[in-house]
Amino acid sequence: MVGAMTTKTPYHHGDLQSGLVRAAMELLEEGETDLSMRAVARRAGVSPAAPYRHYEDREALVSAVAAVGYGELAEALTAAHPSPSTPEQLVRVAIAYVQFALARPALFRVMFGEPCNRDNNERVAATGAVSLYLQGIVERSFPDADAEPLGTAIWALVHGLASLHLDGKLDSTDPAAVADRVNAAVRAMLTATQPGRDAA
Amino acid sequence: MVGAMTTKTPYHHGDLQSGLVRAAMELLEEGETDLSMRAVARRAGVSPAAPYRHYEDREALVSAVAAVGYGELAEALTAAHPSPSTPEQLVRVAIAYVQFALARPALFRVMFGEPCNRDNNERVAATGAVSLYLQGIVERSFPDADAEPLGTAIWALVHGLASLHLDGKLDSTDPAAVADRVNAAVRAMLTATQPGRDAA
DNA sequence: CTACAATGTGAACGGTGATTACATTACCGA
DNA sequence: TCGGTAATGTAATCACCGTTCACATTGTAG
Question: What pTM value is reported for the model?
């Protein structure tokens, strides 16, 4: 009964479920790469054991964070262009993908780097959304091509560019140079699939 | 002075420096994904503090392991084809790259997944070797093309395929299907750069 | 043979994921 | 309004981890 009148530290958080995800996102944005359960709990102003009422284990919380990340990645891509149907527009989306990875490296690692359960979580749905978005782009841009392998190839190319930059295997000090590299790589891939040529 | 005549547990390991790397490699091969310093020490038959005589911290040991991994990746690639100069041969190398990632996922994650020091370790040299190997392939295969961006694009494509399969974003249950996917993607990329067309 | 440098040990510190028993609170039916 | 039950948060605890320190042991140079 200490300080009962003030609003400080109510016993119940209110919405810890999403508060934890928000706290985790904050930590990632601040450069924390490990996302310890305890650190997230601290940031949310709650005891170390509290998160386990809402997430079975660290894996589960991280997956929830990753799912939000996929949504934000999708936002960033659609912001670059809502519905690309030309190589130029597709290149802009590709650049946005790599820029997302470089701008939010810790989140990107959580989304793609950590070994995760293939089966039972929301991540598969979220990544499926990204995949479908790309698939749609490809189908609009190259109606003659087989969309599935081409979409896969483009996703892999762009994702690989993002990963290699993020891991320091490709120099990412100059954003313009990065954009040029992405532009060149994607165009190289796309010139293979102009109407009239075989894509698979 | 217990059991002085037997060869069991001599106080000095002999070659702990490389023994630790070997132990770490064993653990990775057995599926351990975390590579805890203590577990490596245990496997090497040594106290938890001993590794610190040879590696400044976990980062340093992991980097040494990664460097060995790069060497083995290079071996796997050259085993697929020592010196590719045609798209067909290059495809074989690409498939070998992805198969390496799928066959030794924990090692691959150590090599590429973990955030690492960009500056002062042997990893940059080792990745540079992989990069140069690819660059050489591209130069031989496409003498008319600008090797640097094309080599980057191919590396990114193949690495992206490996990463997405490893993270479960692409189905990797059927090795033949994986190989087909890699084949299709790389060929799509390569048809863009046949002599007479612009690569950048 | 002796001193020194190199190498390995054991104990310790703080941090982590996770579980358990317990405390507090919200909410719903009487 | 009251009381009980389910939901939610806490404190204590366990095992493990990275890392450091003082100390023990061993190889080796002089």
Answer: 0.90
